[in-house]
Amino acid sequence: MIQICQELVRKPSLSGQEYEVATVIKEIMLSKGYGHVVTDSCGNIIGVMDFGGCGKTLLLEAQIDHVGVGDPAEWQTYPYGAFINEGKLYGRGASDQKGAMAAMLCAAADLKRDGHKGLKGRLLVVGTVQQEKFEGFASRYVVDHYHPDLVLIGEASGLSIVRGQRGRAEILVETRGRMAHSANPDFGINAVNQMVKFLALLREKFTPSSHTYLGEGIIVLTGLYSHPPSNTGVLPDKCLATFDRRLLPGETPRSVLGQLRKIARTLSGKDPNFKAKISLSCSEDRCYTGKIMKMEHFVPAWSLPEDHPFIQTALDGLSSMGLDPMVASKAGFGTNGCYYAGVAEIPTLAFGPSREELVHIKDEYIEIEQLISGYLGYYGIARQVLEQQEV
C-alpha cells in the first residue's frame, strides 16, 4: 500500500491532466482482481468488487487530481518525489487524496480476497477527476451508471467520521465607472472607488447565518482586479471582485445573490452613478478524455442526521478494526459529497487518513501510521456495510 501511494504521488495530476495516474490506478485494480474496471467519459476510474446477493452498493471515492505546487524551489523535498522520512511520505496530493486512494484500493481487494462469509452487495472504488476545479461535476456520472446506496469519501479527516460539509458559491461583483485621465479624476468615475464603497457596506451589513454542525455561511474576498490593468494614467472603468461564499442547508443561488444585490441597491439609492453586476462565476475546461466540463460555481451544503444508521455502521466498522471511533465535531472541506448528498440525496460520510491542515500546503505529507489506519478503517466500514443489509 505504501508503494502504491508513492507511485500515485509520483504522477503529477493537475485537474484535467490525470491520465497517467488514472492509468496506474487501472493497472493496480486489474492486478488486484477487481471484477470490473472502467474509465468513464470524464476520465473517472471505477473498479467494482461484486460480493453477490441482493445487498447494498457502497462507493469508496477519492479525488485523483490535485492543486498546483506553487514554486517548487520553496519545497524542502521534490513535490513529486514521494520520499519517506521519519514516518512521513512527502509529496503533492499525499494527503489530498492519493493516500486515501491507495488505502481504498488495497482495502477493497483484501476484503474480497479474505472471503468473509455473509457479505452481499457491491463495493465500488472510484478515483474522480477535476474535483479541485469542478466540485461534484464528475461524480454525477458515477451515480448515473452505478447507483450507489451509500458513499464514503476519502477526505483527510484525521480518521474521524465527517457527517456533513458546507456548500460553496463563487460570486463575481463587477462595479462600473467611466474612464478619464488620472490628472482630472472629476471628469470620470473610478470603478475601484465604487468597489471600495461596496466592500465597506458588505463588511457592515453582512451577517453570516450559522448551523450547529456546519458552522457559519461566511463570505471571503479572494480576488480584486481593475481595468485597464496596468495604465496608471487612466481611471479604471471596471473593477471585478471574486468572493468565496460558504453555504448552509437551504441556501439557493437566488437567496445568496439576493443578499449582495440588496447592498448594491442601497448604494445605488445613495449614488446614482453606482452600478454593479453580481453573478455566479462559470468555468469551462476539458477533461483528459476530451469531454467538456462547464458549470456555474454553486454546490449545495449537505449534512447527515446524527442518528442516521450509516454513522453507527461506520463507527462499528472502525471499532471492529481496533480503531478509535469518533464523529468530528465540525464539518470539513468541500468534497464531491456536495453532489452525492446535496443533489442526489445519497447518505454520505467522509473519512480519511491525514489531517486537514496538511492539505494544499508546501511540503505536503501523510504519516505512514495514518495511512495504515485509513486502510483498516475502509476495510472495517466496508465489511460492516456489506454484512448489515438494513443500513
Pick out the low-confidence regions.
Answer: none
Rg is: 23 Å
Question: Which class of the largest domain in CATH terms?
Answer: Alpha Beta
Estimate what percentage of residues fall within beta strands: 15-25%
- Give me the CATH superfamily of the largest domain: Zn peptidases
Work out the helix count: 9
- Spatial strand arrangement across the major sheet: 1-2-6-3-7-19
Largest sheet: 6 strands, mixed
Percentage of helical residues?
A: 25-40%
Number of strands: 20
CATH-scheme architecture of the largest domain: 3-Layer(aba) Sandwich
Structure commentary:
The chain is α+β, with helices and mostly antiparallel strands and 391 residues long. It folds into two domains: 251 residues, Aminopeptidase (3-Layer(aba) Sandwich); 118 residues, 2-Layer Sandwich (Alpha-Beta Plaits). The chain has nine helices and 20 strands. It has a six-stranded mixed sheet with strand order 1-2-6-3-7-19, sandwiched between helices. Strands 9, 12, 13, 14 and 17 form a five-stranded antiparallel sheet that branches. Helix 1 runs antiparallel to helix 2, helix 1 crosses helix 3 and helix 5 packs across helix 6.
